[in-house]
Amino acid sequence: MIGRHRLRILVIAPLRFPIAQPHAGGLESAVWSEVHALRHRGHDVTLIAVRGSDFIRAGSAFDVPPLSWPQGSSPTDQSYPPSYEERSVPALERALDEVARSAGRYDVISNHCLHPLPLQRAPRLGVPMVTTLHTPVDDDFVSAHRAAEGRGSVFLSVSEHTRRSWARAGVPSRLLANGVDPASWVAGAGGDGLVWFGRVVPEKSPHLAVAAARLAGRPLTLAGRIGDREYADQVLFPLLGDDVDYVGPLAPAELVRLVGSSAVALGTPSWAEPFGLVAPESLMCGTPVVSFAVGGVPEIAARSVGMSLVRPGDVEAMAVEAEELIATERTDPTFRARVRASAVHEFSLSSRVAVLEDHLLARARGVVPISDELTA
């Protein structure tokens, strides 16, 4: 039975990391927040995810084995070990078999998996699907969409940049940006130092944050999980010193305190970031942001108070912009409050989930949205 205030939702998570705190990355954080918020709003939410995730029962049909890396290999966020195709994907296949056998238990699927298998199975599961596009275009996703011939998933994109990219590949979607919980990302008093947080990987380029901080003459704290050990050991860690500290992955409350007690957050993506949760999370704390203008990041800045953009890789400009934001804060006692208020208005998780509910309800009722234009 479909009720306006109580949907039976199956969420399919990515298969790389558990959906649990502290979050392995922005994607895991977004999925965790969605499940938590939907449950809080009264929906019956079931999760398919990697073992160790919150919200699932260990040993159940929806408990996917974790990745297992061969002895002597170095795990990275840019590749998968053989166990992904040998164990994880077959476990997902079995979970989807279970869904198909008990399709009447679910009204709709919210799919965040980065493997095309759920899209390939969508026409035969017996449960309508909504897939959120979090990444650059994936050819296997495109092929799965075409093969479904209108009987598969409908799509949401986390940014206009992402929507346009997928539209050019023939996959139409609706825009629904990620959201941040204001009750978790609370206001902070600021401070004198700079902060960078996220996955420690080459495409996030924290070494460029170090360069910008030193040009600005300010201390920098780096926080986050190491997603590429070789990059961390050979590129980032040699730069650490009295003025640059790496504190590792932090529990959510600890990370919020760090960000809220910082003067400015630095964003240094070296790839076309589809969205970039770091910016709205920082802004929600009242902490202004300087970021490279890549991917979907400029869309966040356009909707925000206290966020400056510089050309990709321009650490000199980043240092200058950081000092200008700090000067603004020093002369305007309302600045941090305005930064937070703008972020709460534009990127509140509750607002995002309310719109998501409408999409899920429409899909559950068999409504297929009119396709957005397929070109930019």
Short note summarizing the structure:
With 376 residues, this protein is an alpha/beta fold. 40% of the residues lie in helices and 14% in strands.
Topology order in helix (H) and strand (E) letters: EHEEHEHEHEHEEHEHEHEHEHEHHH
Provide the structure class: alpha/beta
The major β-sheet equals: 7 strands, parallel
- Unreliable residue runs: 372-376
Output the strand order for the largest sheet.
3-2-1-4-5-6-7
Question: Terminal Cα separation, in Å?
Answer: 39 Å
How many helical stretches?
13
Global Rg: 21 Å
Total number of β-strand segments? 13
How much β-strand is present in the residues?
A: 5-15%
Description:
The protein is α/β, with parallel strands linked by helices. It has helices at 26-40, 82-101, 117-125, 139-148, 160-168, 206-216, 229-236, 252-260, 278-284, 297-302, 315-331, 335-347, 349-364, and strands at residues 8-12, 44-50, 63-64, 108-111, 129-133, 154-157, 174-175, 194-197, 220-223, 244-246, 264-267, 289-292, 307-310. The chain has a seven-stranded parallel beta sheet with strand order 3-2-1-4-5-6-7, sandwiched between helices. The chain has a six-stranded parallel beta sheet with strand order 10-9-8-11-12-13, sandwiched between helices. The longest helix has 20 residues, at 82-101. The chain is globular, with a radius of gyration of 21 Å. The protein starts with 7 loop residues before the first strand and ends in a 12-residue tail after the last helix.
